[in-house]
Amino acid sequence: MDSGQFGEEYTAWRLKKKGAEILYRNWQCRYGEVDIIARYESFLLFVEVKTRKHDGLTDPLESITRGKQRRVIRTAQVFLQQKPEYRPLQPRFDAAAVYLGESGKVREFRYLPGAFEA
Question: What angle do CA 45, 48, 52 make, to 5 degrees?
Fold first, then answer.
């Protein structure tokens, strides 16, 4: 499993631990991909996960550019068109940063609810 997959697994585990229901992983359409789609309370979470080594030069959340945000938002719109049963939920765009230590274990985890808006 590569570090990106590991970061997504870890984030999904943390979401489940908080009571979220993971609906889809790596949901794709022609506009892009959403790493995790989950239901949490009255929210439909579209989660972008970034994983980096803890001593990396850049913050993983910096790699969620405005262009990436637009692709995630457009993908979420297609998801809601194709899955009308989730339309009553409030969409929210979250971001997760998973920092790995030298041993490959999680050293730090940051989760930003409402990291960007449509």
Answer: 145
| Separation between Cα atoms, residue 97 and residue 90, nearest integer Å | 23
Query: 20-29, 54-63, 74-83, 92-101: lowest mean pLDDT where?
Result: 54-63
Six-digit token string for 66? 């405005």
68-85 pLDDT, tens digit each: 999 999 999 999 999 999
52-81 exposure pattern, b = at least 16 Cβ within 10 A, e = fewer: beeeeeeebeeebeeeebebbbebbebbbe
Cα–Cα distance for residue pair 56/71, rounded to 1 Å: 25
Torsion of CA 13, 17, 22, 27, to 10 degrees: -40
